[in-house]
Amino acid sequence: MDIAKKVSDNVLVRTISDRSRVENIGDNYIVRNLWGGLRSMVSDRMTAVYFSILVTILLMGVFGPMLAPYGVEQIHFDPQTGEMLRAEGPSLAHPLGTTFNGYDVLTRLLIGARPTVLTGIIGGGMILSIGTAIGVTAGYVGGRTETLLMRFTDFVYGVPLIPFGIVLITFLGVGFIPSIMVIGLILWRGAARVIRAQTLKVKQYPFVQVAKASGASTPHIIFKHILPNVAPMAVFFLSLGVGYAIMLQASLTFLGVADPFIPSWGVMIRNAFNSGYMSTAWWWSAPPGLLIAITVLSTFMFGRGYEGGDSETENNAIAA
Amino acid sequence: MSDPLLEVDDLTVQYETDSGMLTATSNASFTISEGEFFGLAGESGSGKSTLAKAIIGGLDDNGQISSGTIKYRGEEIQDLSDTELSQRIRWKEISWIPQGAMSSLDPLQRVSEQALEIGNVHTDLTDEEIRDKLKETFDIVGLQESRIDDYPHQFSGGMQQRAIIALALFLEPELVIADEPTTALDVIMQDQIFKYLDRLKDELDVSLLLITHDISVIFESCDSVAIMHASQIAERGTTDAVHANPRHPYAFMFKEAFPDIREPKRELEVIEGHPPELMGDVDFCSFADRCPWAAPECRAGAPPTESVGDDDPSHMTACVRKEEAYEMYQSDTSPSDDGGGAQSIARMGEVD
Amino acid sequence: MSTNQPVLEIKNLKKYFEGNTDIVDMIMRREPPQIQAVDGVSMTLEENESVAVIGESGCGKSTLLRTLIGLHDISAGDIVYKGTPVSEFDKADWKEYRRNVQVIFQDPFNSLNPKMTVRESLAEPLDIHGIGNKEERVREVLEQVELQPAEKYLNRKPTNLSGGEKQRVSIGRALILDPDVILADEPVSMLDVSTQAAVLTKMKELISDFDVSMIYISHDLSTVSYIAETVKVMYLGRFVESAPTKRLLEDPKHPYTEALVSAIPVPDPTYDRERTEMSGAPRDPIDIGEGCRFRDRCPEVIPPDDIDIDQQAYREVMSFREFLEREEVGLERIEKIVEVNERSALVDAIQREYFDHELTGKNESTLRSALTSLADGNEDLAIERLRERFESVCETTPPEVEAEPEWHVACHHHTGTDRRTVAGGGGTNATDDSGSDATGSVAHAENQ
Predict the structure, then answer these.
(1) Domain of C426?
(2) Measured between alpha carbons, how far is C53 from C233 in angstroms, rounded to an integer?
C-alpha cells in the first residue's frame, strides 16, 4: 500500500511542512468566517442600508469632535443684543439651535456621538463576551459547572437594573464608565441563556461527535466547532447589546446614575428635560432622541440580517 | 378498479424564484381509478411531492400550476380557490399525509380533539358522529378504540403514524395521498402499516397515491406505478407491466438499483450524477445527461409519451429509444457513443 | 484461525443510562429507572473483518457504537483493543485508540461542520494528532473517495455538496488517519438509492484496500450482504443471533431474525409475500429483568409442553400476566377501560377486552378463575394461577449456543433444553442452572 503511509503505532510523526501553513491571512478560518458573514449579509440590500447607517454613526463617533463647529461648552451670545442665546431655534449660525445654557446643539450632538458609540461598543462588547463565555462553557461542559453557571445566570436575571446601578454608583461614584459597567454586568444574562441553548444544539451534531471521538481536545472543539456555529447568534446579541446599552445609558443618565457632564445623547435629552424646555425647544431634545432611535434600530436590524444571512448552517431538506 | 377517480393531464407546476421559473413538474399525465393503489416513484428532487401538493392545493406561495388539468371525478379542480378546496375536497374527498407526518400531530391536543377540529371545519357531522368514525378507523389500523383520547406522545412511533393514517381516513375520503409514509420507520413497522393499508383497500375501497423513493414497496403493494425523473414521468403503467417490461432507461436502472433479498449477490445498479434543477420549459429529456444511451434526439425535444405496446394499455413511456434500450442493457452492450453523456455503469460486486 | 489477536474484543459490554426521576420518585427515594440500552454484548473483530450489527430503532446499536468510540462511559464489561482492555488505558493509550478507531455517522447533512471547507474537514484529524503532510494526504484521500478533480472540492463548503459527496468526505475523513477499525452508523440510509450503491461499493473497496476492520450498524438487512461477511442481530440490548450473512438471510433461526427477513419488501408484483404477523413494537429497555426479551412479541413463544394451546392465544395469556406482574395494568385502570365494575360482568368484560382468541378446556377455566381473582382485587392470586399453568421456558434467559459452526443463536428453540412441565405445584425449569447466566457470554470464543 503506497498511499497513506502508515504511521507506526508508537511514533507520532510531527512534520511542519511549509505547505500546511496558512497561505495568507485570507485563508485563516476565523477571518474567512467573519468576512464571509459580512459579505453575504451585505448582499441583502436592507441589511446593507442598516450597516451603512451604523458605519456613519461610527464615523460620527470618530470624527465628531473634529467636525463640530464650536466648543462643547462654548456659550453663544447674540451678536447684536449681547444676550445669551437661550434655547433659540435653528438659525444659520446654529443649524440645530441652542440649549438652555447657550450651547450649540449641533456641536454637542457631534461631540456626544463619541461617548454614545463608546457606550454601545463597550456595553455591547461586555454583553457579548461575558454572555458567550458563560453560555458556551455551560452548554459544552455540562454537569455541575453548567448547573452552577445557569443558577448564577438565573440569579442575575432577578437583579433589577436600575437599583443595581444605583448601588454600584454608591461604590464607584457617578461616572461614564460605571454606567456602562452596570449595563454590561447585568445584561449578559439573556445572551448567556440563548447561546447555551445553541451550544447544546451544536454539541449534538455528528461533526462534533466525530471530532471528540477522534480525540480532539475541548478547546479545539470549542474554538473550531462550537464558536463558529454559535457566532451568528452571538453577533445578533452583540447588536442587541449595543442597542440596549445606548438606550439604557440614556435612561441611567436620566436617573442621575451617569455623568451628566459628558454629553452623550442620552445626557442631552436629560438636560433638555431638566431645563423644562423639552417640549418647546424641540430642536434640542428631538435630534439626540432620533439619533438614538436610529442607531438602536439599525443595530437590531443589522443583527437580524447577519443571523438570517447565515446560509451555511441552513440544512438542505431532502425535498422531493 | 373501475371509474377514473383522479385524472392528471399534461400538468406543469413551476415555482417563481429569484433566478427564474423553476419547473418541478413538466407535462405529467396519469390516472388513478377507484380502489386503486398508485405508486409515484422517484428520487429526491424529482417533483413527486410537488405533484401531490398541486393536487391538494398545498403549493407554497411561489408555486403555480402553469398548465394542464387535474380532474377529480370528472370535474376540474386545479383552479378551485383555497376555500372551495377546503369545503369540498380536503379531508372528505382527498386527504393528504405529508412527508415527515409524525410531526404533524399537535402534541398539545388529544387525537380525538384534532379529529373534532377537522370534522367541524369540513363537515356538518356532530361531535358524537365524528368520534364514532374515528373509532372505526382506529380499529381498522389496529389501534385500540379506547385510545382516541390519548395524546400523541402516548403512542409509540409506529402507532403515531397509524394514528395519522386514521386521521386521514376517518372522514372516508375516496383518495389518500401519502408522501413517504413509512420512510422513517423500521421494516417491521412498515410492514404492519402496509398490512393496514391493504385492509383499507378491502374494507373501505379507498384509493391511494403512494409517493416514495422506495420502489420495492411500490412494486409489492401498488397496482400501478409512475416513475418520475426531474419533473418528467419517465414511465407508467401497471406494476406488473412495468416490472416485467421496463422500457425507459431510468425505469430499469432505478429498479435495478434496489436490492432484492431473494438475490443477495446481484450487482446493484448505480446511476451517475443527480437529477438536474430545471428552469423554464423542459423541452428535452431530463435524464439525457445521466443516460448511457442518450442520443442527440433526446436533447432536441421532450420525448413523446407513447404506448409501449404490450398487454397493458396503460403502459406508457417517454423515451425515443424505448425499443432497444432495455435489450441493450440486458445484453450488457457498452453504451452507444453518439453524443450521449455516457459514463461507465459502475456495478457493485459481491462480498466473498 | 489466524494466530493474530483480534483487533477488538467486546466482553459482556453493558451501558445503562439513568432515566428521569420525577418529584414523586424523589420523595419516595426510589432508584431512578435504569435504561438498559446495551445489556451484555460480546463479540470479536478480527483484522480485515467486516461485521454488521442489525436491529430496529431502540435496540441499542447506536449506543453500542458510541460506547465503542468512547463517547459514553462503560457501565460494565470491557472492550479490549489489541490485547489491552480499555479500562486500563492511560492517556496515551486513549489517544492511540482514538486515532485507530474512526467513525462515520448516518446524517450527511450534519456530519460536516458547515463552516469548514472540505480541505479543513479532512485535515482536522491530522491536526488533532499532529500529523504533517496535510495537503498531500488530503488530496490523496479525495482521490480515493473519487471526488475529483481535487481543486473542485477542496475549497467547497458542505452546502455546496450533494448528500453522496458529503458522505464521501466523511468516509475520507475516517480513512485519512489509516485506522484499524471503522465504525459506521448507517452511512447510506439517508442517501438516494442510486447513490447508495455507489457509496457502499466505494466503502467496501476502500475497507479492503486499507486493510481496515469494520463494524457496520444498520436497520436495513437488504444491503447488508454487500458490505459484511457476518451479521449480528440485536434486540433490546443483546445479540440474539450471529451468523454468516448469506446463510442468515436464507434461513434465519431466531424468530426475530425471521420476522425481520420476512418483512423486507420484495420488489416484485408477482411475488406473494405475506405481511408480518408481528404486532406492537419493542418494549422500552427499562427494568427488563430476566428472560428472553422477545417473548412478548415472539410468534413462536414456547408454551409448557403438556398443555395444548394455540400460539396466539398463549401469547395473549402470557402478555396479560406480564402486564399484571409489571403493574402496567391494574384493576382500577381496567375498570375504567371496560367501564364496568360489577364483578361477574367485569370478568367477561376483561376477557373481551384483552383476549381475542378463544381458549378451551382447562386453559379456559384457569383463565376464568384467575380473572375472577383479579376482579376480586386479588392480583397476586390471579398472577399465581396464571403462572402455575402457563409459565413458559422463555421466561428464563436463553443462553447463546452455537447451533451450527459459526452460527450462534440465543433462543430456547435451539438450546435443546427440556421444556417446562406443569408439575403439581410449579416445578422449576430444568435448564435453570446451565443456561441462565447473562446472555452473550462468550461461549463461542472457546471454539477457536
Answers:
(1) 311-398+411-447
(2) 6
Looking at B171, B189, B222, the residue that finishes a domain is B171
* Residue C239 in this model has a pLDDT that exceeds 90: yes
Residue of B nearest to C161 (CA): B274
- Nine cell digits for residue C193: 438509492
What are the chain A neighbours of B15 within 8 Å (beta carbons)? none
Identity of the amino acid at C51: V
pTM comes to 0.79
B292: preceding bond cis by omega (within 30 degrees): no
Contact check, Cβ <8 Å, C132/A220: no
- CB of A213 within 8 Å of a chain C CB? The answer is yes
B191 and B283 belong to one structural domain: yes
Q: Whose grid coordinates read 484499524?
A: C180
What is the DSSP-derived secondary structure letter of residue A226? I
- B108/B86 same-domain check: no
Does some domain include residue B98?
Answer: no
Number of separate domains in chain B: 2
Which chains touch A (3+ CB pairs under 8 A)? B, C
Q: Are residues C70 and C214 in the same domain?
A: yes
> Are the Cβ atoms of C210 and A4 closer than 8 angstroms?
yes
Domain identity same for B140 and B278: no
Interface with chain C: mutation pick from B223, B268, B271, B347, highest number of C CBs within 10 Å: B268
Backbone angles phi, psi at A213, to 5 degrees: -65, -25
User: A-chain residues within 8 Å CB-CB of C172?
Assistant: none
- Contact, B152 vs C276, CB < 8 A? no
Among A24-33, C12-21, C28-37, C64-73, the minimum mean pLDDT is found in: A24-33
Domain span at residue B161 reads 104-171
Residue pair C213/C8 in contact (Cβ under 8 Å)? The answer is: yes
Is B99 a member of any domain?
A: no
- Residue in the structure block whose three cell numbers are 443618565: A253
Q: Does B89 map to a domain? A: yes
C261 contacts on B by Cβ (under 8 Å): 261
Spell out which residues of chain A touch residue C209, defining contact as CB-CB under 8 Å: 1
**Are residue B134 and residue B249 in the same domain, yes or no?**
no
Contacts of B194 in chain C (CB under 8 A): 275
- Say if C280 falls within a structural domain: no
**Coil, helix or strand at residue C373:** helix
CA distances, C349 to each of B94, B270, C377 (Å): 38, 58, 15
Which CATH number is C94's domain given? 3.40.50.300
Which of B15, B43, B44 should we substitute to test contact with A (largest number of A Cβ atoms within 10 Å)?
Answer: B44
Residues A236, A237, A239, A244, Cα dihedral to 10°? 150
CB A36 within 8 A of CB A66: no
Residue of C116, C124, C178 with shortest CB distance to A7:
C178
- Do residues C242 and C318 share a domain? no
Q: Which residue of C has its CA nearest to B216?
A: C267
- Indicate if C219 and C322 belong to the same structural domain: no
Q: How far apart are CA B285 and CA B172, in angstroms?
A: 39
Interface predicted TM-score of the whole assembly (ipTM), two decimals: 0.82
Shared-domain flag, residues B12 and B146 = no
Task: Give the max Cα distance, chain A.
Answer: 99
**Which of A3, A10, A207, A229 to mutate to test binding with chain C, by most C CBs within 10 Å of its CB?**
A207
Return the higher-pLDDT residue of C448 and C394.
C394
CA of B303 vs chain A CAs: smallest distance (Å): 23
Q: B87 with B119, same domain?
A: no
In order along its 352 residues, chain B shows pLDDT tens digits of: 468 999 999 999 999 988 889 999 999 999 999 999 999 998 887 888 899 899 988 888 889 999 999 999 988 888 888 888 888 888 889 998 887 766 778 888 899 999 999 888 888 889 999 999 898 888 877 787 878 888 888 887 777 888 888 888 888 889 999 998 887 778 888 888 888 888 888 888 889 999 998 999 999 999 999 999 999 999 999 999 999 999 999 999 999 888 888 888 888 888 887 788 888 888 899 999 999 888 898 888 888 888 888 888 899 999 988 888 888 888 874 444 433 333 333 444 434 3
Which tens digits make up the pLDDT trace of C240-283? 999 999 899 999 999 999 999 999 999 988 988 888 878 777 77
